[in-house]
Amino acid sequence: MIIVLKPEITPEEQAHLIQRIEEMGFKIHLSRGEHRTIVGVIGDEEALRSTALEAFSGVEKVVPILKPYKLASREFRHENTVIDVRGVKIGGPKLVVIAGPCSIESRESLLQVAKVVKDSGATMLRGGAFKPRTSPYSFQGLGEEGLKYLREASEIFDLPVVTEVMDPRQVPIVERYADVLQIGARNMQNYSLLSEVGRTRKPVFLKRGMSATVKDLLLSAEYVLSAGNRQVILCERGVKGFEDSVRNLLDLSAVPNLRGLTHLPIAVDPSHATGRVDLVAPLARAAVVVGADAIMLEVHTSPEKALSDGAQALRPEALRRLMREIAVLEQSMDVVRKIESEGAFA
Amino acid sequence: MIIVLKPEITPEEQAHLIQRIEEMGFKIHLSRGEHRTIVGVIGDEEALRSTALEAFSGVEKVVPILKPYKLASREFRHENTVIDVRGVKIGGPKLVVIAGPCSIESRESLLQVAKVVKDSGATMLRGGAFKPRTSPYSFQGLGEEGLKYLREASEIFDLPVVTEVMDPRQVPIVERYADVLQIGARNMQNYSLLSEVGRTRKPVFLKRGMSATVKDLLLSAEYVLSAGNRQVILCERGVKGFEDSVRNLLDLSAVPNLRGLTHLPIAVDPSHATGRVDLVAPLARAAVVVGADAIMLEVHTSPEKALSDGAQALRPEALRRLMREIAVLEQSMDVVRKIESEGAFA
Amino acid sequence: MIIVLKPEITPEEQAHLIQRIEEMGFKIHLSRGEHRTIVGVIGDEEALRSTALEAFSGVEKVVPILKPYKLASREFRHENTVIDVRGVKIGGPKLVVIAGPCSIESRESLLQVAKVVKDSGATMLRGGAFKPRTSPYSFQGLGEEGLKYLREASEIFDLPVVTEVMDPRQVPIVERYADVLQIGARNMQNYSLLSEVGRTRKPVFLKRGMSATVKDLLLSAEYVLSAGNRQVILCERGVKGFEDSVRNLLDLSAVPNLRGLTHLPIAVDPSHATGRVDLVAPLARAAVVVGADAIMLEVHTSPEKALSDGAQALRPEALRRLMREIAVLEQSMDVVRKIESEGAFA
Amino acid sequence: MIIVLKPEITPEEQAHLIQRIEEMGFKIHLSRGEHRTIVGVIGDEEALRSTALEAFSGVEKVVPILKPYKLASREFRHENTVIDVRGVKIGGPKLVVIAGPCSIESRESLLQVAKVVKDSGATMLRGGAFKPRTSPYSFQGLGEEGLKYLREASEIFDLPVVTEVMDPRQVPIVERYADVLQIGARNMQNYSLLSEVGRTRKPVFLKRGMSATVKDLLLSAEYVLSAGNRQVILCERGVKGFEDSVRNLLDLSAVPNLRGLTHLPIAVDPSHATGRVDLVAPLARAAVVVGADAIMLEVHTSPEKALSDGAQALRPEALRRLMREIAVLEQSMDVVRKIESEGAFA
User: CA-nearest residue of chain C to A342?
Assistant: First the structure.
């Protein structure tokens, strides 16, 4: 940690600051420049982080040097983490496509969509039984009944399933039926929930909050990891922006940005990001070539009857077309990775 | 609800759309302009909201006419709601100042701060026992032990207390010790938690999420209200922005904006908004004259030793000065309100 | 245009509003719902736009129906505009790559980079002679001298050149040397400059402002188009966001979003968007498959000696690798477009 | 400047970096911590700023220590700058209220409004003759004719006038008629224009850009100051945000934030920030007590007939009420300043 002192700091203020830091067991390294004096603090930065060094008189700014997350960082683990979900490997060389309806609406409609998903070539099924809805008057999901339908669809079509859990008290139930536990964007900083899914042994699909930085997302992953669950998939799904013609702003730079910082697999959800079906296919394609490990898509057999988010759901024929496009781009990405690796050894 | 049709919509598409809306029990009112045809839909807009009208071919955009919240709206209740917290009235003619430490760190330090708060003239005490921290390695609060100290401080100094609840399972414990249940910004869309505090009879202090619009905040209040708890205090505490010299952007326009839309009391927290103690007093003053019902402030007897958010905590003497400034401005606001009321009858 | 009336509007207020609109030559279409009365206004919406209908008592909100731009809209011109820059066609079936240094620093260094650009297979050269720099103390560009070097490099390597113009008074000079006139993000709403380049016959490369919506960008294009210059290339280059590990947030959804709204060609600049060289290649690839017509890249032979924006400049070998990747993805896009066109006829 | 090295930097990379910095004439101060090595660079930071130190292999991050602006900084000039505009002092102990129409629409309407402004007690008149409008089809202002009316109104009512200049070529004309030259938010980074007004001797009223940080604003001021004009008034007028019920987000924290960083006077424009007349008075009051030196307000005698921005214009009686409120709050601020000064000497 580096502390920049104000030019007008008094000798007493400076002595007081240094004394306090040394009392906490840190070593000090003073460096006097032309305009500012800088204090390098040597020791466990974490211990210092919660101390309000900015609250000392004479301190101009405090610059942390280390990253505040550990288990999630690439320094902690150099190779990419691959998560095996009943044979589907997320984070490995093959892109995983997760598709399904926003909400589970009925047994029939779910089985219909699951068949479409399976036939299209996607390898995981999504569907919400507990829905976080902005309005208390909107459809809130079928609850455990929905989870049963999801399990049934999973068995019939041999598709591992991912579904959202919203409440620490629901974790045992959702864990019973789901293969992957999803934490929604609105709950990315629901730390009780993160700790609770951290105590399970099911992989966690963690969506980035709408106003979370990449660092915030990794700190939320750290909650799960530090509770003992090392299987976390990060998901970019759009952040809050000022553009009023899309719901959120899909931050595709987050994929290569995260790739450098973490060993965890990275997914992209273009459906929730934009809320507009006409933008889903182009952005799904972009997610493939920007290097995502998984893509999550919403599909509905008749979007205009959907109980939630119909405006962003792909129709079956659109999903089939998109899956063919993704297959073509995946092949290109094999070539791209070869070209990139030449650079790495150059 | 109004539906704007694309100019290229076919007669079949238009007939299909209209048929579907009429099947759902709505009346249709067609209006053909020079460039666009517009469909007015008459009936309970709420029922239509979850239908993906944008998913119909030929629909250009859908414009809702009514507000999506009811119980929180000023149309539902015209007079301001006044919430009585053990004699302290929030939403009435007198501004309420809530002050205290970010976290409860020990019995002694809490009692010290509580005395400072009481002596300064503030009328409620704040302090966190369960702390939502971005990093799992930061101090997470003293838990129930902290709540006991808070209760004790409340009794000794006759100050009602507000404290955060982060988990639906903690609601019964927190309810036992606290006078007001705070929902933090990160949990504003934690709907399980909102419903749970909605089932208590304790007032709820609901902080605006960092990327929540004013409408989102009112919809979150609606969760609490519709669960049966009619005592909700809304709190502006800064939204996410691009300015990198402050933590968040305090949106003071939200106060008069909300005032027009809702009957619920409105508070402002300038400490968390900025994260900088030098900005707290000016923004607290601004909150008074923009018309807030309550102001929440962080105080610490030695900010540089605080276990959380020390950089934004007022020292005791700064709190005392600010309370004197607030008193002066409150008197001015009596005159301002008189002048404004001339306008209302003009 | 649709006007939603407040429920408490008085008959006098309503009559006054309607009378005023009718006086302006518009027809009125009243539609009374259960909760709100809606006024449809029929006639030239543009004429009404500048009238402050919200300023009338009793008006709750005003909803425009038509888009505020015309010449830029796909309704005005259905087929894509293809712009021919000395034989390089932007907006046609082939992706155009524009590469070069941020600033022109010397004759030698420019010729060096131009050779790298040519050899890599890119087909246009960029380079700034007039630089808009945040600080008045930063290198401001070589001015006309730089333009001469640019022209020379253009002739030697047979590469059309694009360069920024910042001031209406510079337009004649820049026009003399450049093939395409670039308007930078900071000048996207510099209307004098837009009108001035609109009077030239050189294509205009218009960068989206950092806080401009897609609609704002099209309105700025409309300034150029309505001044008589029909050759405008729109460029997404990142918008302002809260993420602090990248300079701006590249909004790739803008490409398909704009594609639906306008016939103008669309470019993407991943270098300025992120400010980080490690993110440029992945986002350039994403730009190809999201459907961009052109990509603008910064290249430098020794980025650590660059006088501006070195941190985002590709080294020559990185450009060569990226050009090979782009070539692979372009081939895939031919297949993708075929698949998409099946959908369009389905 | 501080450079943090990556843990995996090679000795050769480190030697290369240090050699290059020393070649540029800087001294180096190495500091080895447990996890990172840090390079302190001693010398003129400005010279180093444009070098892309991040482009060196092995560099993790670069942390500037000094502020990039000089003449605008409080370190350069400790006492507040007071600007005298024909006897009206901006930046002194008395708050200045600048009021007038958004655009000058006709001689008659301007004289009417000017009379209202004068009678209300405001001391400066605003009004636009050259209008930056998002759409090329909106009213663009009366040009020089408008400036003549403005000058006439100024003389008749003895009110100094401020008006916008949008184009470097207009500076001589606008300078002839106006007392203060306004740079609009859209032109805050129009550096040609900033340099041009920097060469005049008229005070400059510089509005903060919609996506400009406080530091960006000060760097734009630096353009004017370094061109020789030391009379710059900074104006907060709302920044881009995601809230869709107001036009922009008024950042009142910018006032005390700027106060600490600069000696220049600070103004607030609550009319443009919100675009809603119902929010103007509360935010104008907030601006007074947050410590603004000046407030800019839009007034119109019949807002529903305004040719621009009618929705945010105060009616004459509302301006008169607000001026009375401001007077009351100014008196309170005298007391507040006394209380604050006790703190400064404590």
Answer: C321
**Residue B321 belongs to domain with CATH number:** 3.20.20.70
Same domain, D240 and D325: yes
Could you tell me if C52 and C197 lie in one domain?
no
CA distance D73 to C315: 37
Q: Which of D240, D256, D346 sits opposite B282 (nearest CB)?
A: D256
pLDDT recorded at residue B344? 67
| SS3 call for B46 | helix
Q: Would you mind telling me the total number of residues written for chain D in this entry?
A: 346
CATH number for position B53: 3.30.70.1140
* C85 and C77 Cβ atoms separated by less than 8 Å: no
Q: What letter would DSSP give residue A295?
A: E
One domain, residues D13 and D116: no
- Domain membership flag for residue B185: yes
Question: Does a structural domain hold residue C71?
Answer: no
What tokens appear for B260 in the block? 């027009």
Strand C37-42 and strand C2-5: the pairing is: antiparallel
Portion 248-277 of D in contact with B at CB < 8 A = 249-257, 260, 273-274
Angle, helices D316-345/B277-290, rounded to nearest 10 degrees: 150
Q: At which of D63, D93, D110 does a domain end?
A: D63
- C211 touching A (Cβ < 8 Å): yes
Final residue before a domain boundary, out of A63, A97, A112: A63
**What residue of B is the nearest CA neighbor of D273?**
B253
Q: What is the pLDDT of residues D194-214, one digit of tens each?
A: 999 999 999 999 999 999 999
Question: Residue B69: inside a domain, yes or no?
Answer: no
**Rounded CA gap, C227 and C233, in Å?**
15
Token pair for C150: 């640019």
Query: Which chains neighbour C (Cβ–Cβ under 8 Å, 3 or more pairs)?
Result: A, B, D
Longest pairwise C-alpha distance within chain C: 76
| B194 and B250 part of one domain | yes
The answer as to whether A281 is a domain residue is yes
Shared domain check, C174 and C57: no
Task: Give chain C's domain count.
Answer: 2
D208 and D311 share a domain? yes
Q: What is the pLDDT of residues A103-147, one digit of tens each?
A: 999 999 999 999 999 999 999 999 999 988 888 888 889 999 999
- Report the half-sphere exposure of D249 (CA within 13 A, side-chain side): 28
> Complex ipTM, two decimals?
0.94
Residues A54 and A111 reside in one and the same domain: no
Would the CB atoms of B168 and A166 count as touching at under 8 Å?
Answer: no
Chain centroid offset of residue D47 CA = 27
- Residue B12, Cβ density class (10 Å: 0-12 exposed, 13-18 middle, ≥19 buried): exposed
Looking at chain A, which subunits does it touch, using at least 3 CB pairs closer than 8 Å as the criterion? B, C, D
Residue range(s) defining the domain that contains residue D207: 83-341
Give the residue from A69, A236, A253, A324 with the most C CB atoms within 10 Å of its CB, the best one to mutate.
Answer: A253
How far apart are alpha carbons C168 and C159 in whole angstroms? Answer: 25
What residues pair up with A59 in beta bridges, in sequence order?
A5
Q: Which residue in this structure is represented by tokens 């480190």? A: D14
Which residues in chain A land under pLDDT 50?
none
| pLDDT more than 70, % of chain D | 99
How far, CA to CA in Å, does D89 sit from each of A24, D95, D194?
A: 51, 9, 23
Residues C17, C126: one domain?
Answer: no
